[in-house]
User: Which sequence fits this backbone?
């Protein structure tokens, strides 16, 4: 039992840190790294499209306040898109969800630590560690879209597991944390809470932020 518990806790830490790091480096790629794309355009095209879809469309080109009204891309954003870009944007509903094929993108980094769990804590711990590593892709696919809805709409229209999560203190903290990410895109990258604070990129709301959350109907504990 202790092996399983250590595996779950360790897997959670690995998963939340990996999610924060990957979201920051790929979804919001720093300019110093984006400069490398021009030298390897063919090999790094996928990374450019991920950044473009997430940062330019989901964060900046979508109309509405993103939490109390539907996310739709502005005509200016859709106009210059190639067909490949349009397919990406419509395929993930303007960044609100992900495809099952994207699971490997979330999982590859945390899964590299499974052999370490096996070698240091044993087989049971290694298997248990995989469970929390599944949370980031599941949250992105099933929970993220409802975070961008009014709270009462999210509770009414989400499936039972998501509805249960959003009613917990953890779920409401997730909503506020993600609201801060859309206000300050250089911080609060997690849906699976914790890694941002470990990596030093967590940001707490100011009094003005709290007032705006309240005005937008964000649940405050």
Assistant:
């Amino acid at each position: 039992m202790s092996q399983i518990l250590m595996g779950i806790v360790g897997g959670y830490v690995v998963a939340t840190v990996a999610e924060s790091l990957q979201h920051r480096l790929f979804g919001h790629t720093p300019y110093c790294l984006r400069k490398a794309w021009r030298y390897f355009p063919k090999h790094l095209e996928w990374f450019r499209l991920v950044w473009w879809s997430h940062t330019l469309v989901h964060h900046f080109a979508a109309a509405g306040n993103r939490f109390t009204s539907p996310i739709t891309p502005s005509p200016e954003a859709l106009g210059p898109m190639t067909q490949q870009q349009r397919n990406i944007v419509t395929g993930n509903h303007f960044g609100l969800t992900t495809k099952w094929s994207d699971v490997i993108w979330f999982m590859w980094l945390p899964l590299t630590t499974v052999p370490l769990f096996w070698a240091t804590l044993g087989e049971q711990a290694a298997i248990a560690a995989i469970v929390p590593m599944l949370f980031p892709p599941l949250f992105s696919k099933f929970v993220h879209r409802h975070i961008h809805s009014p709270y009462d709409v999210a509770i009414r229209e989400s499936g039972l597991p998501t509805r249960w999560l959003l009613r917990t203190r953890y779920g409401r903290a997730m909503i506020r944390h993600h609201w801060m990410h859309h206000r300050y895109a250089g911080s609060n990258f997690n849906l699976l809470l914790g890694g941002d604070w470990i990596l030093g990129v967590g940001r707490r709301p100011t009094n003005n932020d709290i007032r705006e959350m309240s005005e937008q109907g964000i649940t405050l504990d």
Summary: The CA atoms of residues 82 and 147 lie 29 Å apart.
